[in-house]
Every structure is written in structure tokens, then in C-alpha cells.
From TrEMBL:
It comes from the Bacteria. This is TIGR02646 family protein.
Length: 194
């Protein structure tokens, strides 16, 4: 996880095309059904705000989903609030589905240096920089979402790292696509040679 600018600018037509339509839908359907999707047309705006990177995986993704950080199950009234949306991989969103938001670290809360990639294992780990007030939720997030060492995310990390190692991707390109891997490479390059 890496810092994401917060708040993200709300798209100009969001109020009319999502929030107003969504709140009207909720008023007409108070029975607890899954809220109607008026948010997907704004997925590309959300992706741009996240630098086209998954909010949890911190790597470029071609087609992420709109995640409701506070799920519709927890609070239907936030279903159409721009500030409640995060851009994440679909399979990570599915894993997050049954978790209470109060237990998870919000990508908008993450500060620089809280997470790092270990080389050569490519596993995600917490650093000592995580402030005590966020530490428990950061540990829970790392343990309960498939972001530490799940094979799906490890495969992505290996692909970016191999592109860099082969010379097909510059360090600057790696920094844009997989910034935590780039930081790990820079840390390794800064170590004195034995």
C-alpha cells in the first residue's frame, strides 16, 4: 500500500448521475437489496485518482473495480458517496467483501514508508514507520487481505520485477507501475557492496 491523494476530486457529473439517482433508488428500495450500480461509469475517474494502481496492491492494473470502502452491507447510505470509493483489483475487492471496514486500513490513511517489498521474496511487509494508532488495522489488513504473499499478487510483482531486471523497464518506469518494488530496488542499490 502507498499513499493516495485524499480527497480525490469528485467528477463534475457525479452528483447528478450517481448520487442523486442513487439516493432516489435507495428511497424507492428500502428493503436491503444490493444498491443499483450508478458508480461504474466513474471507474475511470477513480482509476486516474489512484494513478491507475490498486489501492491495496499498489501496482498498475488494467481494469480495477470501484470498491465501497464502507460496504453497502455496513451502510447503504454511503453507496453513492464519492469519498467512499477506492480503486482496487476485483479479486481483492471480493476478498474484502465480508470484512468490516473498521478493521481494515483505508488506502487513504496510508503514509509514505508504512509498507515495503522485501527482496528477493517480493513479500509485502509493514515497517516500523506505521504509527501506533494505525498498527493494529495495518496488521489485520496484511493478514486478512491477499496482499502480503498471495500467489496472484506475487505473480504480478514478479512480472514487474523481471521486466526491470531484463532492462525492458527502467527504474523510473518501475516507479510509475510498481512503486514499492522500485523502492525495494533503490534500497538494494544503495547498500554497500561487500
Amino acid at each position: 500500500m502507498i499513499p493516495v491523494g485524499n480527497p480525490l476530486p469528485e467528477p463534475e457529473s457525479f452528483e447528478r448521475k450517481c448520487r442523486q439517482k442513487g439516493l432516489a433508488w435507495l428511497a424507492e428500495h428500502p428493503d436491503g437489496k444490493r444498491p443499483r450500480d450508478f458508480w461504474s461509469p466513474f471507474r475511470h475517474d477513480l482509476a486516474r485518482g489512484f494513478g491507475e494502481r490498486c489501492g491495496y496492491g499498489a501496482m498498475w492494473i488494467s481494469s480495477g473495480t470501484v470498491d465501497h470502502f464502507v460496504s453497502c452491507r455496513e451502510n447503504r447510505q454511503l453507496a453513492y458517496e464519492w469519498s467512499n470509493y477506492r480503486y482496487i483489483e476485483g479479486w481483492i475487492n471480493s476478498a474484502k467483501n465480508k470484512k468490516d471496514s473498521a478493521s481494515l486500513l483505508d488506502p487513504f490513511e496510508v503514509q509514505e514508508g508504512w509498507f515495503e517489498i522485501d527482496l528477493p521474496s517480493l513479500q509485502l511487509k509493514l515497517t516500523d514507520s506505521v504509527s501506533p494508532e494505525y498498527r493494529q488495522r495495518a496488521e489485520y489488513t496484511l493478514r486478512n487481505l491477499p496482499i502480503r504473499d498471495d500467489e496472484r499478487i506475487m505473480k504480478q510483482r514478479r512480472a514487474w520485477y523481471e521486466l526491470y531486471e531484463s532492462g525492458e523497464l527502467s527504474l523510473e518506469g518501475l516507479r510509475q507501475r510498481a512503486p514499492l518494488i522500485a523502492a525495494a530496488v533503490e534500497k538494494q542499490l544503495a547498500k554497500p557492496k561487500a
